[in-house]
Amino acid sequence: MSAHEVWGFTVRKSASGKNIWPNQLKREACRRIREDGAVAGNIAAELGASSR
Q1: Is 15 exposed, middle or buried, given 0-12, 13-18 or 19+ CB atoms closer than 10 A?
Q2: Greatest CA span in the chain, whole angstroms?
Q3: Contact call for residues 49 and 19 (beta carbons, < 8 A)
């Protein structure tokens, strides 16, 4: 199982290759959208969530 860092959080990969997102990272992404007015698509791209 591999892992990488995003915004200081460790994102692991499952055996099938899917990202396992920590709850704290999900909360930070939501906070940035809600409070900072970030665009969800930009957040997803920054996290690497939209790449395959």
Answers
A1: exposed
A2: 35
A3: yes
Residue-wise pLDDT tens digits, 21-37: 999 999 999 999 999 99
Asked whether the predicted pLDDT for residue 39 surpasses 80, the reply is yes
CA atoms of 28 and 9, how far apart (whole Å):
10
C-alpha 9, offset from chain centre: 9
What residues contact 52, with CB distance under 8 A and at least 6 apart? none
Q: Which pLDDT score, from 0 to 100, does residue 51 have?
A: 58
Alpha helices in 2-47 (DSSP H): 23-36, 40-47
